[in-house]
Design goal:
The structure is a single chain. By secondary structure, the chain is α+β, with helices and mostly antiparallel strands. It has six helices and seven strands; from the N terminus they run αβββαβαββαβαα. It has a five-stranded mixed sheet with strand order 1-2-3-5-6. It has a two-stranded antiparallel sheet with strand order 4-7. It is globular, with a radius of gyration of 16 Å. 27% of the residues are buried. About 3% of the residues have low confidence.
Length: 151
């Protein structure tokens, strides 16, 4: 790394989670905070929040970025997590935490996201049309997390 170097790249995942947290605060829900996890690939970012104030269990978001062009250019999208990421998710779940895989879709205009279920993450592929039909805004993602009791 060069001294006095400033990156001009946007952190789309961080921007999306920040906006989602605004929605969570609006609904009086706990917010997600960034968690540094050594050993995970650079393209994966993790965020966590307490499930409730009386529990040690947390909900973790394992986030990756994908472009809208990648979604629309093929019939299938490769969504398999790397081995370290998959092992990390399994470790979290074995300790009683919830782990959700969330893709942030970069596109013109508003960032969007979609969640994967455990089966989709295990198979490694998702229909592009299915992914695009699930895309939701930051506020919709906040509502989805709030309306699901286990997260």
């Amino acid at each position: 790394m060069v001294d006095n170097y400033v990156s001009t790249e946007l952190d789309n995942i961080g921007i999306f989670v920040d906006k989602m947290n605004v929605g969570l605060r609006h609904f009086n829900s706990s917010i997600f905070t960034f968690r540094s996890v050594p050993g995970l690939p650079l393209d994966v970012q993790c965020f966590a929040r307490k499930k409730d104030p009386f529990s040690q269990s947390e909900t973790w978001l394992v986030c990756k970025e994908i472009s809208e062009d990648q979604l629309s250019s093929s019939d299938q999208v490769h969504v398999e997590l790397s081995v370290p990421s998959s092992e990390f998710v399994q470790t979290l779940q074995s300790k009683g935490h919830s782990a959700l895989t969330m893709y942030i879709v970069t596109r013109r205009g508003q960032l969007m996201s979609f969640f994967l279920d455990d089966g989709e993450a295990a198979t490694g592929y998702l229909s592009s049309q299915e992914a695009m039909s699930r895309m939701m805004s930051d506020l919709c993602a906040a509502r989805a997390l709030i309306s699901t009791v286990i997260y």
